[in-house]
Amino acid sequence: MPQFKVTYPDGTVRIHLATLDRVKGYVKDGGFFEEMTEPPPSDSEIKADARGWRNSALRDTDKFVSVTDHPDHAKIMDLRVRLRNWPSTDDFPDTKPTLGS
């Protein structure tokens, strides 16, 4: 059975496994739909991608650890702490830590 992403008139978005006729009935009073060719990513896939991004961000800032006279050294070190702690926060994986945030 095909999978559809349905956006209702009130803006609510839902994923449905349904026939085309049934999906058309969901949006007969407004809204729209699109057939999904791939299943949405699982929570574990989303978290794995977020950890991959985090690990890359840590690697990108490795070069600044020993440059203690860099003008943004304290901000970079703070960012690295927040990156390491991010997976255990309520913001994970939705809000990525950034420099100065």
Description:
Helix content is 39%, strand content 15%. The chain has helices at residues 20-26, 43-61, 73-85; strands at 3-7, 13-17, 32-36. It has two domains: 3-36, no CATH class; 43-88. The chain has 101 residues and is of the alpha+beta class. It has a three-stranded antiparallel beta sheet, covered by helices on one side. The N and C termini lie far apart (44 Å). The protein is built from three helices and three strands. Helix 2 packs antiparallel against helix 3.
How many strands in all?
Answer: 3
Helix fraction by DSSP (H/I, runs of at least 4): 25-40%
Number of domains: 2
Q: Which value, in Å, is the CA radius of gyration?
A: 21 Å
Largest sheet: 3 strands, antiparallel
Q: Strands of the biggest beta sheet: in what spatial order?
A: 2-1-3
Q: How many helical stretches? A: 3
Low-confidence stretches: none
User: What is the percentage of strand-forming residues?
Assistant: 5-15%
Question: Strand pairing plus helix content: what structural class?
Answer: alpha+beta
**What integer is the average pLDDT?**
91
For the termini, the CA-CA separation is 44 Å
Shape designation: elongated
Q: SSE string, helix = H, strand = E? A: EEHEHH
Helix and strand topology:
Elements: E1 3-7, E2 13-17, H1 20-26, E3 32-36, H2 43-61, H3 73-85
Antiparallel strand pairs: 1-2, 1-3
Helix pairs in contact: 2-3
